Fold this sequence. Notes:
It comes from Ancylomarina salipaludis. The protein has 12 helices and 10 strands. The chain is α/β, with parallel strands linked by helices.
Amino acid sequence: MNKLYRLLILSSVVFSLFSCDKEDSLSDESVVTIEQRTQNELDVWIYENLTLPYNVEVKYTWDDGEVENEFHVTPPKVEKAKQFLEAYLNVWIKTYDDEAIAGGNPDFLKKYMPKQLVLVGSPQFNGDGTMTLGLAEGGKKVTIFNINEFANVIINDWNTAEEILEKKRDAIFMAFHTMHHEFAHIMHQTKFYPDEFKEICKVDYTGNWMDVFPDVAQLKGFITPYSMLNENEDFVEIVAAMLDQVKNSNEPKLYTTQLKDDQGNLTLDEGDVYLSQWEWTIYSWGFKSVLDTTTWRYHLKQSAEAREGYDKFVAKVDIVTSYYKEKWGIDLYSLQKRIETAVNTLIQ
């Protein structure tokens, strides 16, 4: 044992002497290498259009520190990242900025917009079968998934030029639902919305929202099944829906339909109404087509349950729009018009 102990000490001494002897010949160059990436055209565009004017950092190259390691996701293609970011600047940033300036809050966007934007190419698939398309963290960072499918549409040989434009228009509107949703979280986390909002549908919030069909959610006063998760998701889904259903905001569309009386009840009288896409969503809330066996004609019907859901939803919309106007100087209906104009310009 003593012999072994002495050998170990001797070995340590020899190693120490060797190490000291070699110290003088260490290289001045670090053995740690840091990957250097040459800036490409997109990097320059990001700096000039997002970082310099709005102080926004954009990450689109792979960084496993920005995503949960338990999920299998992929980075975005450069061309899809560029396509999304151009739309992000014109459809999201500039519209909010112009509306806030018009509402007397010129520093709104620069102060509250997320300062870091992370782009991920694929969706994040969760263990419960759902799919995450966006995340907001602490008001400073937003992660947007599924960038590689941004604004992708299926175009058939028989589609007219106008039909193709309509498909592209719808795809961009819907793609920014996630961005509107996540930014609305930042808004209500910064300034709380009225508690009365939480009371309107409090008995119907559920963790099993994924098992609810959209028409059933409407009957209970919700714009989407996901908005049934809790009051915060309910609030931001209303904002996101208002800002992705903006068609005909500038020029209302003609609908020939059954009219409502002064109390808002659906009658059998038909007539013409001019409504935006969002206004039609509210007007037609809970409508069902039923067959009148006396005339053998179909007509629309709004059940008592659907009317109750309608009243709940309209009450929530009033709170949401008042909150944005009073707390932030943002008129959501005016913002709808700006977004529609921006999208139409982008796809031309």
